[in-house]
Amino acid sequence: MFTCSADLTLSADGTAQMVLTSPDALQSLTVTQSADECQFSFLGIAVKTPEELLPDTAFAKLFFSAIQSAKDGTRCVKTVNGDTATYSGMTDAGDTYTLTQSRDSGALVSLTMEGRDFTVTFSDFQAA
Q1: pLDDT digit string (tens) for 16-69?
Q2: CA pseudo-torsion sign 62, 64, 70, 72
Q3: Is residue 60 helix, strand or coil?
Q4: Out of 39, 92, 111, 127, which could bridge 48 as a Cys pair, Cβ 3.0 to 4.6 Å?
Q5: Contacts with 76 (C-beta within 8 Å, 6 or more apart), sequence order
Q6: Confidence (pTM)
């Protein structure tokens, strides 16, 4: 099992940037995902790759595809239960996900992709 912490920024144009903050060996690894490419930057080295060349199991691709699907509302159902809203859906690649968001603050709480054994827990999330 791989566990990491990261700071995530989503811009209005759909570009997402994730900066890993732990584990120490990967601190400052930055993944920037736009509509047509993904860039990995680490220790002054930057590598760009078209999205289609990323393996389906790449954590950045899994994460961003779920966020994009929920944002677009494509193949996604929203349910409200108390203080949270849950988005259950399927990415373009066919992965199912559950994304939970606080109704009060808009903060993301968690993301799971059970078929991929992929879980993200958000903390200190700030919606702009």
Answers
A1: 888 888 888 888 899 888 777 889 999 999 999 876 776 655 666 777 788 888
A2: negative
A3: helix
A4: 39
A5: 69, 70, 87, 88, 89, 90
A6: 0.64
